[in-house]
Amino acid sequence: MKTMKKVTALLLALMMVLSLAACGGKTDNGGNSDNNGSGGKDQPAAVDMTAQEVLDALKEKLGDSYGCDLAEDESRMTGYYELDMSKIDSWAAESSENSALDPSTAVVLKVKDGYAQDAAALLQTHDPLTVLLWLMAHTEDTNLYHRGGAEGAAFVKAQAAAILAAPPKQRTTLTQALDDALIDRWLSPGGSADLLAMALFLNNYFTAFHFFGK
Fold first, then answer.
1. Is 40 helix (H, G, I), strand (E, B) or coil?
2. For the residues 66-78, what does the mean pLDDT come to?
3. Which of 36, 68, 162, 193 could bridge 94 with an S-S bond, Cβ 3.0-4.6 Å?
């Protein structure tokens, strides 16, 4: 618990610093920027750091408390988070290689004008069904191996990945069809379901993302 409090405090402190950099400082003379006169009234200061540079700074500040060691690819950003990459200038994301035991995830986005709120909503309010499908597509679920062997586990992974690749509006219908197929094959992704329950529990304790843009 002490370690979690320390990580939380350091992360929030860094986020505050970066937020100030993104928003620009203000003085009392009519709200003008204090960047040596370079900004006009209510004009935010430019953010020169890339998303990767921000993530690297986060790693340095957190030190051994930083739990992510696996770089995410763009398909994770579009398929899982459903982000519009055309509206993002730069991004960096990492998760824990041993995600079954450590759910740590770091996502940093440098977004274009007008996309910050939409990106925040996509990252912070991801639906449990998508999370479950992602777990089914990536987890070595021993319950599946027990019931259906390697073939059964591979079938579930492939089907879940295909549903994630489909348009989000079709996921509920496709998942219902997959449920029928799993019942026919006597397969149950119980391990993924357990991980989802734990993820929902942890999400109630600590969720933090940082966005910065123009």
1. coil
2. 85
3. 68
